[in-house]
């Protein structure tokens, strides 16, 4: 009982894990700091940033043009004062997702695939995010809930594809993810593993040897759906992270959100498609904004959205034209516009 007190060493983390966790911890976390780092005068910011905080990793900050308050990347992360204005038709759960929870942490809205909200955390905070008000603490499947997820999947043999989402699943450790995937591989009928993640692009340090290991080692066919809204997001660091993911054999796809002042021009969409293709990623979806409270200043009308897609179709290769969709609560899939 009288043993001298001793400092218990923490489990050593692999170097690459420390690198990305430190980069995430060091992300810019306030509007004033964001402006200062970009050489801008401090601007008024939304009070909503107290609940849904600013979060911008250095790698993303480095792609923003200093001194330009209208930069298309800055606009995605700066809490515009318009966020605080209530708008009719904009709500905190626009997709009625809380009703679609099959078991806590598992959403099955569409046949054949189910989506796991593994964590509420993200490597970046996008101001237009439809999940910005989502109560993830209640949704995260851990412990007994994780068993319930596996039981649900075993009881639903039509579910062949499992989507790891969130939040962003790649904010979790590789140890946790590898363990989840090992359990999922034990569900006999599962064929495909899909990741929905923005992290490889906004925090390229996250693409570690351990991540590449479990991703290339799984028996499941893998798809990684990244989230890039503007060509300027794809700098050399992002491209090499994507190349490493592609090296695992994963199919890379992109989903973007149509955002006023970010990518609502035919030039911006064409450049995005070409930059994605050069990085080995095919455009998949272009989402119409979900009417989430605080995001109304990003809205583009359906008429304008259709016009943009028709113009894009008329001037570029078909595989560079994403499917323009919107999510309609209760529909059996994304709804084409
Ligand atoms: C978007 C989404 C999917 C995936 O839909 P795809 O059209 O296959 O890309 C699956 N489940 C949920 C709950 C979704 O929101
Ligand atoms: S990374 Fe995705 S889930 Fe996270 S804040 Fe951005 S849009 Fe939302």
UniProtKB/TrEMBL annotation:
Spans annotated as Disordered: 1-22, 65-91
SUPFAM superfamilies according to UniProt: Radical SAM enzymes (SSF102114)
Reactions accelerated catalytically: L-lysine = D-beta-lysine
Ligand binding ([4Fe-4S] cluster): 122, 126, 129
Entry GO MF terms: 4 iron, 4 sulfur cluster binding; isomerase activity; metal ion binding
Domain of life of the organism encoding this protein: Bacteria
Xref: PANTHER family: L-LYSINE 2,3-AMINOMUTASE, LYSINE 2,3-AMINOMUTASE-RELATED
Listed name of the protein: L-lysine 2,3-aminomutase
Biological source species: Thiohalobacter thiocyanaticus
Lineage: Bacteria, Pseudomonadati, Pseudomonadota, Gammaproteobacteria, Thiohalobacterales
């Amino acid at each position: 009982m009288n043993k001298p007190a001793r400092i218990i060493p923490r489990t050593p983390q692999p170097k690459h894990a420390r690198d990305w966790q430190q980069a995430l911890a060091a992300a810019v976390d306030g509007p004033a700091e964001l402006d200062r780092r970009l050489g801008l005068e401090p601007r008024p910011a939304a009070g909503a940033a107290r609940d849904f905080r600013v979060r911008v990793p250095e790698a993303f900050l480095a792609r923003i043009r200093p001194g330009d308050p209208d930069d298309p990347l800055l606009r995605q992360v700066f809490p515009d004062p318009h966020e605080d204005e209530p708008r009719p038709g904009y709500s905190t759960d626009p997709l009625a997702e809380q009703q679609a929870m099959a078991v806590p942490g598992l959403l099955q809205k569409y046949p054949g695939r189910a989506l796991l909200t593994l964590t509420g955390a993200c490597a970046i905070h996008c101001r237009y995010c439809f999940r910005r008000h989502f109560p993830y603490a209640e949704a995260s499947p851990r412990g007994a809930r994780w068993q319930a997820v596996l039981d649900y999947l075993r009881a639903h043999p039509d579910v062949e594809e499992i989507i790891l989402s969130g939040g962003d699943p790649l904010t979790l450790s590789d140890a946790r993810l590898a363990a989840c995937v090992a359990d999922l591989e034990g569900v006999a009928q599962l064929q495909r593993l899909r990741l929905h993640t923005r992290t490889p692009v906004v925090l390229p340090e996250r693409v570690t040897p351990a991540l590449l290991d479990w991703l290339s080692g799984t028996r499941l066919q893998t798809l990684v759906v990244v989230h890039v809204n503007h060509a300027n997001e794809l700098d050399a660091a992002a491209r090499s992270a994507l190349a490493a993911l592609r090296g695992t054999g994963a199919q890379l796809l992109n989903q973007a959100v149509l955002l006023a002042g970010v990518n609502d021009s035919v030039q911006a969409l064409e450049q995005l498609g070409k930059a994605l293709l050069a990085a080995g990623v095919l455009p998949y979806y272009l989402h119409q904004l979900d009417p989430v409270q605080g995001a109304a200043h990003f809205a583009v009308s359906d008429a304008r959205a259709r016009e943009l897609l028709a113009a894009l179709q008329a001037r570029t290769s078909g595989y560079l034209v994403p499917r323009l969709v919107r999510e309609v609560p209760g529909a059996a899939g994304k709804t084409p516009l």
